[in-house]
Amino acid sequence: MTRIWIGLGAIAAALASGAARADAIDGNWCRPPAKQFSIRGPAIVTPGGTAMQGNYDRHGFMYVIPPTEPDAGNTVVMQLMGETTVHLRSGADAAAAAAAPHEVWTRCSNTTS
Predict the structure, then answer these.
(1) Is residue 78 part of a domain?
(2) Contact predicate 87/60, CB 8 Å
(3) Which parts of 1-113 fold into alpha helices (H)?
């Protein structure tokens, strides 16, 4: 448990510089061509479609990829960079994820039929 808190502290320190403080990370996030995840408080539906719980902060989120998805066991760390942008990083643990290159995800556009 101590390792998790140390990892979260390292992530917060690494990502705090320059991070915009938008409203909240909650919502639906997309990355072309067809990736999507959804966050509602500590609940997430992962890009692989798994509904689970993670570590929620109003401007960030962290979870371990479940066994049924690619890169199972890796830690995913997300940081809200503005109202419409999230940086997602993945690594073997929280510290590795914090140091990894980021993917840019954007809020999904609302579609109507």
Answers:
(1) yes
(2) no
(3) 2-16, 94-99
Question: Global pTM?
Answer: 0.78
Instruction: Return d(Cα 5, Cα 8) in angstroms, integer.
Output: 5
| pLDDT of amino acid 4 | 56
Is 113 a domain residue? no
Domain that holds residue 80: 2-107
Provide the residue type at 19 as one letter. Answer: A
pLDDT tens sequence across 11-41: 554 444 444 445 899 999 999 988 999 999 9
For 102, phi and psi rounded to 5 degrees? Answer: -100, 155
- The number of domains in the chain is 1
The per-type count for the chain, helices as H runs and strands as E runs, is 2, 9
